[in-house]
């Protein structure tokens, strides 16, 4: 989908009331309805469900990108819709590109961000804070923080996402590096198969 069509699709969702409608947000099974409506698929390893709404057909040669991309060709940009739940949360991971998160509805999203210099901070994505930039190389994990038990968000990345840019967090490694965040790390990592 082209960027202009993506923006129009999201605008249509907002104006239709589906995204921020309080009535829809309180409907049991609202997360399942979104997953079905947008034909979302489970996100391997990380958790949650996604639907790709944009992936440019134009690409950037790996030689033109910083060395961290390993000389691998990337789409110019990508955008997804994302639903996470208290069980299908976004497990700690890091990316090679800044990720811009957008809030569309459901519960606020609570983030744990672990920086390369050993710092930990928390952030929220919600109606009052509808966008959040997670810088590259920052460990990020998130989960809905509210009574509904689900959140509807989206992310954009440039250069666009490819699977090789994703690194899952390991509970024991992260706990050693960020001992003061042990409880949050345990809550945002998995030891078994992903349950979206």
Automatic annotation (TrEMBL):
Signal peptide: 1-25
Entry keyword set: Signal
Coiled-coil region: none
KW Chloroplast (keyword) present: no
A Pfam family this chain is assigned to: Cupin_5
Superkingdom of origin: Bacteria
Location of the DUF985 domain: 33-167
Keyword Signal included in the entry's annotation: yes
SUPFAM superfamilies given in the database record: RmlC-like cupins (SSF51182)
Stated name of the protein: Cupin
